Amino acid sequence: MNDILKVSGLRRSFTQGGVTIDVLRGIDLAVGQGEIVALLGPSGSGKSTLLQAVGLLEGGFDGSIRIDGEEAAKLDNDGRTRLRRDALGFVYQFHHLLPDFNAAENVILPQVIRDRDMASARARAESLLTSLGLGHRLDHRPSQLSGGEQQRVAVARALANRPALVLADEPTGNLDERTADIVLAEFLRLVREEGSAALVATHNERLAEKMDRVVRLHEGYLEEGSARN
Predict the structure, then answer these.
(1) In the chain, which ranges are continuous DSSP H helix?
(2) Domain 3-227 architecture
(3) What is the pLDDT of residues 174-226, one digit of tens each?
């Protein structure tokens, strides 16, 4: 299995009030092609910090991050922007949809930014949204959608450009339990159908067990957990 993500010796510290806090203390992690890994840990354990590093969203990290075979540390700002655009998809706890655009347009936009023609981008958006049960909601704006529907749109947007790796930060954390189960099941199904790898941060043990493998973040270190049966 090819490693889509390979992290080696990743460290991140913050200084507050003259005190240095070590959040990540030498993280080693590999995620294989098509593998869905749960990043488990309580709030404040550094899950979001790790995802920000892997997502090339923030500097100040020491160590190696290789995404789809490319070493991020060797890239300038433009190179990191390109790698983030071409290889990564993101799903957050809060969907962050553009309120003035409808569901289809929210999924079309990242494709247009990547220079895909409008007809192909619209067809891709409609296909993804229909597969998530939103074929009848394409023209609805986020304010007209339920929380679960908004998060489904966010999932479609994350997969619009067929990323090698999807990063999800508590993707169902803002939903009730029943809706969370439905959205997570659809997220996992679609990621697997698309053949992407995924790293999913969660504090929910029950949801983590639905994924292929579990790693736990504890006091700045990563520990291997159980695999899905």
Answers:
(1) 47-54, 77-87, 103-113, 118-131, 147-159, 177-194, 205-208
(2) 3-Layer(aba) Sandwich (3.40)
(3) 788 888 888 888 889 888 988 899 999 988 888 888 999 999 988 888 887 55
